Amino acid sequence: MSKVAAPTAPKNAARGSRVKKFLADNGALVGLFVLGLALFIATPDFLTGPNLLNIGIQASVIAVMAFGLTFVIVAAGIDLSVGSVAALSAMGSAWIFSQADLPGWLAVVGGLLIGALSGAVSGFAVAYGRLPSFIATLAMLSVTRGLTLVLSEGRPIATAPEVSFLGGDLGVIPMPIVVLVVAGIVAAVILNFTVMGRYMYAVGGNTEAARLSGVPVRKVLVTVFALSGLFAALAGLLLSGRLDSAQPQAAVGYELDAIAAVVIGGASLAGGVGRISGTLVGALVLVVIRNGLNLLNVSSFWQQVVIGMVIAVAVGIDSLRRKNAPH
């Protein structure tokens, strides 16, 4: 009797399903690898130690800002104020040190508190004032940028040495990269290993079901916006530390890059989906694209076009994923 060959179709189907799931869960990481490989082939200057450190430094501000924004987007919100909150926090920190003549460590704490308080105000407007997060944070964008100009009178202010230290080096490793790693670990722990993190996913997945299940929805909303402001403040301190001064027009437009990083990293604008690791990869994708285009001497005008197309593709993929998801 001849042996009957075992059917291979089910095995191939299972293998194909695993590949599709891997690409769905790690599409941004695969894209980053392909992008890096293409740039390595296109220019020998890309995969060098100094350039890779430069990428890490450039990614630090956007990634830290995007970590906080991930909490908001997971909870089905949006925060358009993070760039202006970062600027106000840095300016407030510099004002505390230079104008109020208080210790540098207090300037750092004060800057972080300014960011957290700004985010909490937006959270209260959303949770208790029932304003759409788009409107509440758009208003906060204007308020915080205006306060930044009021505090600075339109001029840069020198930062405290403790803030400048954040823009320096720790041995051979730039401090912005160290802060990036620490902030990413803290954010991942909050989102994945705390009750509040589980509440964020529940609120983003279905707000009404979460409320009926006993989740304190209003408290969660205030918390996610406060955390977004806190991480934005840290990003602002990193930026001012690199410049050794707080600039009144700092971080203009950074909120768009931060939102793009979260979405490219696999988070859904509809809420309930998102990972800190994905957000980090999304930020790296944006920075690597800009870095590679600079190395290839591509005009900054065309860089804006490319970044816009990447964002559009990421949002389109998110829409398709939600459309094809089982209900």
From TrEMBL:
The chain crosses the membrane at residues 22-43, 55-73, 80-98, 104-127, 134-152, 172-193, 220-239, 259-289, 301-320. It is found in: Cell membrane. The keyword Membrane applies. One of its GO terms (cellular component) is plasma membrane. One of its GO terms (molecular function) is transmembrane transporter activity. Coiled coil: none annotated. CDD domains: TM_PBP1_transp_AraH_like. Keywords: Cell inner membrane, Cell membrane, Membrane, Transmembrane, Transmembrane helix, Transport. It comes from the Bacteria. It is a multi-pass membrane protein. Its main location: membrane. Pfam families: BPD_transp_2 (PF02653). This is Ribose transport system permease protein. It comes from Arthrobacter pigmenti.
